[in-house]
Amino acid sequence: MRGPDRATAVGLALVWLSAIVYWLSARDFDSGRQDFFYLADAFLDGRTWLAAQPGPFDVIPGGDGRWYVPFAPFPAIAFVPLVAILGPGTADQVESGINAALAAANVGLCWMLVGRLSVADLVHRFWIVLLFGFSTALWWVTARGGVWHSGQLIATLLTLACLVELWGRQRAVLVGLLAGAAFLTRAPLALAVPFYMLLLDPSRRTVAADVTGGYVRSAFARWPVREWLALGLATLPAIAFFFWYNAVRFGDPVESGYALALLPDWLAARRDEGLFSVAHIGMNLDLLFTHPPMKIAEFPYFRPDGLGMSVLLTSPGLLLAARAPWRSSRTWWLLGAALLVVVPTLLYYGGGWLQYGYRYFLDSIPFIVALVALAVARHGLGWIGIGLILFGFVVNLGGAYWVGRI
Length: 406
Fold this sequence. Notes:
This protein is mainly alpha-helical. The protein is 58% helix and 6% strand.
């Protein structure tokens, strides 16, 4: 009986090593808020509400001792089997291990995706996976934990699964189901669905034998209208659940709860300017691109303020995406998805606090990492690329240091 090939063995080793690093980064910190486990328990009991207030903010009073959470429900649905076995309290106690496993699964899917994007050199694959797993906000959200960050981990996992399938068997129904689940985890990811349809690759070629000429010829396949329809229909259960869930909780199918949640005064003042508004674009662009840490006199000589930090500091290796093959339409579809899913975030009042880096940008990062892989597959990596990745790794190592200190 043959064992796994070398690439698979290295990938599995990276998954295990990543899980250990993530767990060690998180094991001494308690987020104090893992609403998804308690919501999963409520689902098992036939409820959409919690019987106790989970925290002072990001929660919605419903009267009669009912408390609703505004966060999208798929992570709680995904945790139902786990909570059914462990119970919500035990699951809460081992949250750091659960999040470490989720983050390590993300690393495994990234390894698989990079391989499918024709990065054959295992050393290059390692560097790209290091960029994704330890030079982005993924490390921070795993270590910090809590309901806000567990949802981000699951959303990233689902997006990567979509991309792995799109560079694999391209089963439209599976991509649609995954995309629907991602929408029920992070709503902006609904905007990636049109690009998933385009990534089904209408220019796929069919190969048929020409019996008269004795040669093999290729012809452009038809536009995959049936696959598009299948993908779209597969997202409908998630959309229907979204409207039903809101209507049951708040009597309004389009009220998710974010406009109703309790907030600290300074954040409520921002929301009063609009849940989504152009007034928030300047703040979010600053947090995404220019926001620096504070200088301090003692080690490690900088301190994050918790509002955010420029992606150019935390993840400069993503700049390698600029060398992707821009003559390919699929490159543009990946870029389009990365840009479009971040638009609601730039309009959103919340900003992502408390964070290290800009955690909402994780919605876009799987698409950008795919672009990086396409670039490396064509041009290689080089010392500049390795240096950018290592710089981001060191910055994010600082995030692991600060996780319980801000």
